[in-house]
Amino acid sequence: MAIKYTKLERNWVMYDVGNSALVLLNTSVVPIYFNAINTGAHPAELVTAWANAQTISSLVVALLMPILGSLADYAGNKIKFFMGFFFTGLILCFAQAIPMGALPFLVVYVLCTIGLNSSMTFYDAMLTDVTTDERMDSVSSSGFAWGYVGSTIPFVLCLALIFGGPSILGLDTLLCTRLSFIITGIWWLCFTVPLLRTFKQKHGKEREDGAEGVLRNIANTFSGLLTTMKRIMHDRVLLVFMIAFFFYIDGVHTVISMATSYGSSLGIDSTQLVLALLVTQFVAFPSAIIYGRLSGKVGTLRMIIVAVAAYVGIVLFAAFFLKSATEFWILAVAVGLFQGGVQALSRSYFGRLIPKERANEYYGFFDIFGRYASVMGTLLVSVVTSLTHDPSLGVLSIGILLVVGLVMLVKLSRMQAANA
After folding, report:
1. Please, are residues 157 and 28 in contact by the beta-carbon 8 Å criterion?
2. For 3, which DSSP code?
3. pLDDT classification of 74: cutoffs 50, 70, 90
4. Which one, of 265, 100, 91, lies nearest residue 178 by Cα?
5. Burial class (CB in 10 A: 0-12, 13-18, 19+), 72
6. 3-class secondary structure per residue, 16-75
7. Which of these, 314, 333, 281, 326, lies nearest to 395 by C-alpha position?
8. How far is it between the farthest Cα atoms of the chain?
């Protein structure tokens, strides 16, 4: 049975619609654009450069978020940090439309990605303020679901411009690609404004005012981080889940971020790559909704386990069987079936395990595990590909991390069954 969402829940979901447009552009068009302006490079060098960019952006976010997240937990701070990183990412999104060389573009891309991903950390932490524990799975899944399908609207406009602009408007393909950053940025802004206008932080730590109070708040932030680390270490369920998350989300994020670059290195036509990833968005929409509903019947943890097991199969398929556009389409559909579900349920499952008044702080650590996993995954792909000059072996290495995450999830399931 479908639930009726509140205005705040709807506005929170709308931000997923906005930021997902940039995420989709970054995982599909941007790697191809980077390859186009980085002329003369070997395919393995392109994959390595792109993996290094993903690694750096993930590492910076992972280092910043626990500290900034703890500061954001003070009453009234959450929206301020969210706005700061959102507008930073937005400005740099527009800046990518400026003609520049491959290296300067990669630097701007990394900074834009830091702004985007940091804003999403604070956005995730808002979930505890906008809804209840009972509705978290459904609201979180709806965010991913509507994000997938909503992001396709500006994406289709961008594709129409990129593929039709040269013949219809007489514009250069690279210029049309740069204009896609403008279109995506405007979309991101429009779907963020409702959340900025209506969000109210319900849970938070008490703050002290005045100069001395600010200093104490900062000092308490660092001591609070140590306290939170100790709490996590003593909470076996939370600790095991975070370790499992560290490994399995690596596979999810790395497959998403490296798919187009990997397909391009195999010589698959860029049009096929982009259209296949567009299909991923449409498949992911109903899949994420179904995942949210099934979690209430089957159990959130069980559904996460199913998705991770599926991702093991996806990585094996990509490493051993992905050679042509047909196989890439199969991969795109398979990713769409499980991508949104595992991300949404991981977010909501974690939200039910943590104290609400320290949501940003805990989600900061959650982001450390997620971002460092992304660092490890993309770095692993980069190193293995560089050493072997075979991108397929780089992709295969991700499967090890997914299996470790799956084993930890099964262990967690048995722990919960024993405590029931």
Report:
1. no
2. P
3. low
4. 100
5. buried
6. HHHHHHHHHHHHHHHHHHHHHHCCCCCHHHHHHHHHHHHHHHHHHHHHHHHHHHHHHCEC
7. 314
8. 67
pLDDT in tens, 259-294: 666 677 677 777 787 788 778 878 888 888 888 888
How far is the first Cα of the chain from the last one, in angstroms, to the nearest whole number? Answer: 27
Model's pTM, two decimal places? 0.72
For 262, the token pair is 């990997």
Say which residues have a Cβ less than 8 Å from residue 217's Cβ, sequence separation at least 6.
Answer: 71, 74, 207, 208
Query: Measured on CA atoms in the order 286, 310, 138, 3, is the torsion positive or negative?
Result: positive
Return the structure tokens found at 416: 């919960």
Inter-residue contact 289 to 16 (CB < 8 Å): no
Cα angle value 279/374/229 (rounded, 5°): 130
CA distance 349 to 128: 11
How far apart, in Å, are the Cα atoms of 327 and each of 31, 317, 340? 19, 9, 21
